[in-house]
Amino acid sequence: MTTTATELLLIQKDDTWDQCNWIVPLSKAIEGLTAEQAAWVPSSGGLSIWQLVNHMYYYNHRLLSRIQGKTPSGTPAENNESTFGDPGDPSDTTGWSTLMQNTTLLAGQLRDQLASLEESDLEASYMNTDEKWAHALARWLLHDAYHAGQIVLLRRQQGSWNIIF
């Protein structure tokens, strides 16, 4: 039996969200984080985990809308940098919890949408460009894997990484 492009994308989606195979999936990278840990910024500068999750949520939400054939809601970001937002409030446990719940819900919705795609959908033009949906989706999955790795690195720097696989 042949493996389809949709099946490959689903394997990658599962591995980047919650399956511990070759990489640390995002759900494990953010598991157990407090708002204080999520808002922490290294003394050398850079982004907080909260900002990385905001950034992924922004793009994943827009991608879900596009897969569904809808125009993404909300005002488009001025630029990529603005999708990260501020570092987060270390005392805002409700805000962090809400972002985690929304991120988890969105991950499930995206997986469901991927599972519903036909091979012809993957061969279609992505947003009126020469790129195919299959290519855009493969790159998106790499994007999430990249940022999950950054989160693990930040957790190691702050001393909050103690998850063993």
Overview of this protein structure:
- It is a single chain.
- The chain is mainly alpha-helical and 165 residues long.
- The protein has a domain at 5-32 and 46-68 and 95-158.
- Helices cover 58% and strands 0% of the residues.
- It has helices at 5-17, 26-29, 35-39, 49-67, 93-116, 119-123, 133-158.
- Helix 4 packs antiparallel against helix 7 (133-158).
- The model has no long low-confidence stretch (mean pLDDT 94).
**Uncertain residue segments:** none
- Compute the average pLDDT: 94
Using only CA atoms, what is the Rg? 16 Å
Number of strands: 0
Helix-strand makeup class: mainly alpha
Q: Which band does the percent of strand residues land in?
A: under 5%
Helix count, per DSSP?
Answer: 7
Order of helices and strands: HHHHHHH
> How much helical structure, as a percent, in the residues?
55-70%
Characterize the largest beta sheet: strand count, sense, and whether it forms a barrel: none
Span of the ends, CA to CA: 31 Å
Shape: globular
Pfam families: DinB_2
Region (Disordered): 69-96
Domain DinB-like: 26-151
Organism: Paenibacillus pabuli
